[in-house]
Amino acid sequence: YLGGGVSVPEGKFNWAMDKAKSDSRCCILLARCLYKDEDLVNRSVTGQPSRRNLKHGAVKRKPITPAKVDAIKVGLSHYVKRRKTAVPDDERISKARLHLSNFLSEKNRPPKAEKCPQVPLTPPVPLGSPNEN
Fold it and tell me: Where is this region: Disordered (predicted)?
């Protein structure tokens, strides 16, 4: 139980805690435990459109559930208690929303178009070297 009526099976929670190598990875793994991949498509943490893309007609996205965001913060706090660093615990936990936002924006980014193959530049061929002849 992570709070707010949100729970994750103990096996999945322990798996996420053991597999995570960083705070951001912990948030991502917990989000994947709480949501299916198709539920994360076209979602954002706040639901607000990107300010950068407002002039291009960006629209609101469905926000992820605030109770689940808080649950991910609780899960991250367990991870932070297990793995201490020089950074204060509160500062690490406060970045949970940032990690989720980065994860969702990466997930919703369109696939990159395949680049045209570049023609390699060939080095100039010397006309004649002084050691010949």
Answer: 102-133
User: pLDDT, tens digit, for every residue of 55-64?
Assistant: 888 888 889 9
Q: Are strands 62-63 and 43-44 parallel, antiparallel or unpaired?
A: parallel
Structure tokens at 56: 């291009």
- State pTM to two decimals: 0.75
From 27, 26, 56, 60, select the one nearest 43 (Cα to Cα): 60
Q: What is the DSSP letter of 43?
A: E
Task: Check residue 53 and give its pLDDT.
Answer: 77
Q: Is 12 exposed, middle or buried (0-12, 13-18, 19+ CB in 10 A)?
A: middle
Q: Is the pLDDT of residue 109 over 70?
A: yes
SS3 115: coil
In the chain the domains, ranked by start, together with CATH numbers, are 10-107 (1.10.10.2590)
